[in-house]
Amino acid sequence: MPQDIDAYLDIETTGLSEDDEITVVGVYLCNAVEERFVQLVGDEITADSLLQALFGTGVIYTYNGKSFDLPFIRRRLGVNLADTFRHHDLMYDCWKCNLKGGFKAVERQLDISRDLPDMDGYQAVRLWWRYVNDVDLDALKTLLEYNREDVVNLKTLREKLPMPGASRPSPVAVAGSKESHSEENQMTYFETAGRDNTDAVMAIVKRRAGELGIETALVASYRGYTAEKAVLALGRMRIIVIAGFAHPTTENLAETFSQGHEELIKSKATVLVATHLLSGMGGAMRKKFGTSSPEEIAGQALRMVGVGVKVGIECAVMAADAGLVGTDEDVIAIAGTGSGADTAIVVRPVNSQDFFDLKVKEILCKPRSWYGPSGDRQRSSPSPDGGRG
């Protein structure tokens, strides 16, 4: 292919930690004359093979590649693609058009279709290990098709993006606000609830924490998905992971961090395992007397604003009661609906005895809907993030 090639790049990995491996690199190369698709798999993935695949490239396009794909490649292969090629992260173009959320959430907003609409990164990891451990060639075929859709849809996304500000007005903004202003903030609404928004939430939190000088993030997570994402995205912040349970049992305690790298999480974050602030005693009263408790009524009232808002408030009080945060400092609480993260709030924690003195200073982001991408209503379950994250 001649020079001035556009390259659309996406990688699959065995996880998100520094010890994880790249399993697939997909590159879609095209210009006005021709196009070519390249996939490197397993041992084929080397610095030399990747640079050879990208030969002639003018610009590399990714979605969240600035924070994930390119740093992962640099760490595992020892090559910094940003030094060799121009890099354009389409996620930031989406943000300018008020298209927020993960790649698949943005696709849905722009009616970009997939043949594998229910596949996600977690399933991609499972497919890889089925291929490695069981020589399951069908699993590898599905993984490669998933990666191919990721890469090809990057080009479709770039072509379908509206001009910034042309057709999607900002949902909520302080009068006269500018994103760079340290005292003003733009609120983000996600079209659907759930884990597809997790990466976008982390990026929003990282930006706003820097603007406000907030040092502590509280992260609701008990299976480890959200906690691992936070550890990798917010590494310079003090991270407190709240693994809460409505009704702790031996079985659900054993599931703690089953979907994340426990050693990574515990080495980078403080972990608090505790009973939900607004569930434990209330559940006992309902079981004994058949009536709702004040705690449960408060919880239901907060859910009207959003499950993630309710959980974020709980986390702030639980962390204060445990002595992990002071009541004289602002923190950012991250939580979600169903699983993963879709909500972040700036909050001044209080102890439980002062619950009604708690102040939510900002809602940085939340879903507009209580429903996930499939249209199913997202419900709370025994984790503080309303799901299995």
CATH-derived architecture of the largest domain: 3-Layer(aba) Sandwich
The shape is elongated
Distance between the termini: 44 Å
> Whole-number radius of gyration?
22 Å
| Main beta sheet strand tally, sense and closure | 8 strands, mixed
CATH homologous superfamily label of the largest domain? Pyruvate kinase, C-terminal domain
Low-confidence stretches: 164-183, 377-388
Strand order of the largest sheet: 6-7-13-12-11-8-9-10
Q: What structural class results from the helix and strand content?
A: alpha/beta
Along the chain, the helix and strand elements come as EEEHEHHEHHHHEEHEHEHHEHHHEEE
- Please bin the fraction of helical residues: 25-40%
Please give the CATH class of the largest domain: Alpha Beta
Overall number of structural domains: 2
Overall pLDDT level: 82
Strand content: 15-25%
Helix count, DSSP H or I runs of 4 or more residues: 14
CATH topology of the largest domain: Pyruvate Kinase, Chain: A, domain 1
Q: Please tally the β strands and state the result.
A: 13
Reconstruct the topology from this structure:
Blueprint: E1 5-13, E2 22-30, E3 35-41, H1 47-53, E4 57-62, H2 69-77, H3 81-84, E5 86-89, H4 90-96, H5 103-109, H6 121-134, H7 137-160, E6 172-173, E7 186-190, H8 198-212, E8 216-220, H9 225-233, E9 238-245, H10 250-254, H11 262-268, E10 270-275, H12 280-289, H13 294-303, H14 307-321, E11 331-335, E12 343-348, E13 359-367
Parallel strand pairs: 1-4, 4-5, 7-13, 8-9, 8-11, 9-10
Antiparallel strand pairs: 1-2, 2-3, 6-7, 11-12, 12-13
